[in-house]
Amino acid sequence: MLNVGVIGTGMIGQDHIRRMTRVLAGVRVAAVADVDASLAARIADRAGARAAPDGEQVIADPQVDAVLVCSWGPTHEQYVLAAIAAGKPVFCEKPLATTQQACLRVVDAEVRHGARLVQVGYMRRYDAAYRALKQVVDAGDIGAPLMMHCAHRNPRVPAFYEPQSAITDTAVHEIDMVRWMFDDEIVAARVLVPRRSRNGGDLQDPLLLLLETGGGVLVDVEISVNVRYGYDIRGEILGENGTAALAERGLVTVRRSGALAAPVPVDWRERFLAAYDVELQEWIDALAADGAPAGPSAWDGYAAAVVSDAGVAALRTGERVAVRMAERPRLYHRPAPQAR
Ligand code: NAD
Ligand code: ISE
């Protein structure tokens, strides 16, 4: 049984605590903390866990084998570094940290530790539809991929959402997904800006982010965060010999009164419900089997931050911005493909 300590008991913290207490196997929530102590106490009570006074004490707790960081982005670095210092596996919700320099400090600390402890919460890699899409690409069924068209639509965003959040908070999921889907690095970013949606007030919304991969795949990502009608995630890949796309979702379509209707998820919790379950179960199972995580690494968190910085610079300047990454440490080298 893996005893997990959770730091941050807001929206996603509560959702992960619910799945660890009611859905997943081989795990128990041992301790929780939040800067809002009364919230932490309520959530701890519901989960049968201890409410700790702060995140550091969750990490230090001898009853805690592994840590889940679900607090606000700017606090992630301090907790991930503390978990590495304590030698405990840590699952950190995205982003790994809010600057590429901070992500590199985490990478350096893990490299000094000498083994992987960190996994970052890029859950699209665990979504059944994205996994099926990747299988089609990897099998060569549509020939070499040439382009990918994506849309990331949120019904609305909170008041603290900033102009760059469209890239650093929202499209960062596509940035990670593209690196994984094509097993390649993103080498440049551009941003195009249409007229503003009146639903977004002063926010420049929507945006079109263009990403180029090293292998020459061009990816466009429409980011619209005030569409009101629901949470809508789309992706279609054009290959040399065909196309493959994420299928429409929902179990039922209704034809009635001259119209065809299908449900649209209300938010990310509903759309990626199963992906979060698989993501955390695989994390728990990997720790039980190997004592180390196998999902998105601190290096992936760093790479996503470098590409988002290029996207933010492209938004600011209107220019094509090249992505420049540090050298990948050996700890994060992938095993060479097996000869057939
Ligand atoms: P939230 O505001 O609902 O919850 C964050 C919680 O962290 C709050 O309760 C806050 O009081 C607490 N907190 C802040 N600073 C803290 C600190 N220093 N120590 C302990 N607790 C602290 O936000 P959320 O929507 O749950 O997002 C949390 C994180 O999860 C963010 O990094 C966000 O990007 C990420 N997230 C990921 C996904 C995904 O799809 N993977 C979805 C939503 C959020
Ligand atoms: C949120 O933090 C997420 O990660 C969601 O998956 C994303 O759709 C949303 O735009 C972010 O704010």
From TrEMBL:
UniProt domain Gfo/Idh/MocA-like oxidoreductase N-terminal: residue ranges: 2-122
GFO/IDH/MocA-like oxidoreductase domain location: 130-244
One example of a Gene Ontology biological process annotation: inositol catabolic process
GO molecular function terms attached to this record: inositol 2-dehydrogenase (NAD+) activity; nucleotide binding
InterPro entries assigned: Gfo-Idh-MocA_inositol_DH (IPR050424), Gfo/Idh/MocA-like_OxRdtase_N (IPR000683), GFO_IDH_MocA-like_dom (IPR055170), MI/DCI_dehydrogenase (IPR023794), NAD(P)-bd_dom_sf (IPR036291)
Enzyme Commission number(s) from the entry: 1.1.1.18
Catalytic activity as recorded in UniProt: myo-inositol + NAD(+) = scyllo-inosose + NADH + H(+)
Alphabetized UniProt keyword annotations: NAD, Oxidoreductase
Function: Involved in the oxidation of myo-inositol (MI) to 2-keto-myo-inositol (2KMI or 2-inosose).
Subunit structure: Homotetramer.
Family: Belongs to the Gfo/Idh/MocA family.
UniProt name for this protein: Inositol 2-dehydrogenase
